[in-house]
Amino acid sequence: MEAKPDSAELFERACRCMPGGVNSPVRAWSAVGGVPRIVESAAGVELCDVDGCRYLDFTASWGPLIAGHAHPRVVESVSAALEKGSSFGATTRGEIELAERLCGRFSSLEKLRLVSSGTEATMSALRLARAATGRDSVVKFAGCYHGHSDGLLVRAGSGATTLGIPDSPGVPAAVGGLTRVARYNDLESVRAACDGEVAAVIVEPVAGNMGVVPPREGFLEGLRKITESTGALLIFDEVITGLRLSPGGWQQLSGVTPDLTCLGKVIGGGLPVGAYGGRADLMDQGAPGGPVYQGGTLSGNPLAAAAGLATLDLLEEDGSYERLEELGKRLGNGLAQALAGNGCVQRVGSMLTLFFGVAGVDDYDDALSLDADAYGRFFHAMLDRGVWLPPSGYEAWFVSMAHSDEHVDRAVEAAGGAMAEIL
Ligand code: KE4
User: Fold this and answer.
1) Which of 298, 315, 332 is the endpoint of a domain?
2) Which pTM was predicted?
3) Could you write out the three-class secondary structure of 387-402?
4) Residue 174 Cα, ligand 1 centroid: separation in angstroms?
5) What pLDDT does 39 receive?
6) How far is it, in rounded angstroms, from Cα 370 to Cα 392?
């Protein structure tokens, strides 16, 4: 019987037909080196690659798998939906329920529109903000990543930083020039950037794409005040934080209410879903009721809605967020101990980043000074010990409800061995 192809062979084939062998750049392991493992399957906290190796996963597909991989309730829900068809190009009960449930959790969401990715959500929210204010400029923060729409690929974090292209070629100067960049956690830089031409300020309320960087006390409140005083809309990009940090996202915990919110990842439970929403007077300017056009063949897809609803059900079970906090804290404390002063761990709830070579990260400049080589060595040392981490130091690790204390302790023990090996 012919030997099954291994990761190296499959990745070679992938490179022959897909740029960099991947469908999203961060998956190419450019920052950490080595042959990206090709995944065969996953269940709970465990990923298996085509080589038969099994890993304890802390990437959670970059955040969505908060209930763990292939949760039986999610599998059952999506399978039942598929039995009834996969897509109709017409409204279904599932998307109505998902929209109702999300509006019920976020007090700022009077109405929302489901789309198929976080990129679509932020791109559409900006278009709506520009239409609603009649202004063209937007303000984003260096190191924040809001997907790959042209105007937001300016000083972008996540894969754009990982690959050293935070300002992507191909974005026309006329478009990029409408994006003003401020410094995260620096209200002075926001005041300098905001004037009567700014339609919106878009921010990750807890940054996750330059590594995890929490907002300083008063930062988000300051953004709210500045946008109110200049007539700009405040957009919270909660694609990572929404549903992960609390039932109502960071805006529920911080008490700062944005005009528009973008969601993704967890709300789709691993299937393609994004959403943008906010005050009805804004959202009703969207087509068909209003003139601001946005649409999508698979928007509100019934399978994705089924996965999202099953995930929301699981998150609504008693103690879910407390458990995520406990596990995140256990992991963060254990990693800080293993790091033993060779960097820092920054954590908010069930998302965290281990930064090598820096004592603290408050903004993009701090993040850019992390020791990326050390992270690359650490990544492989952990992989050798059966722990799968994000292949970039500018990303967040995620804990899921499928993780246990034992899983966390295993990762911490592996980190101790990995540190001894690389430092
Ligand atoms: P997507 O278009 O990838 O669904 O979402 C874009 C997006 C928007 N906003 C935030 C805060 C995000 O973190 C993202 C996407 N996150 C990255 C990882 N940090 C996706 C991973 C990838 O690009 O493959």
Assistant:
1) 315
2) 0.98
3) EECCCCCCCCEECCCC
4) 24
5) 98
6) 11
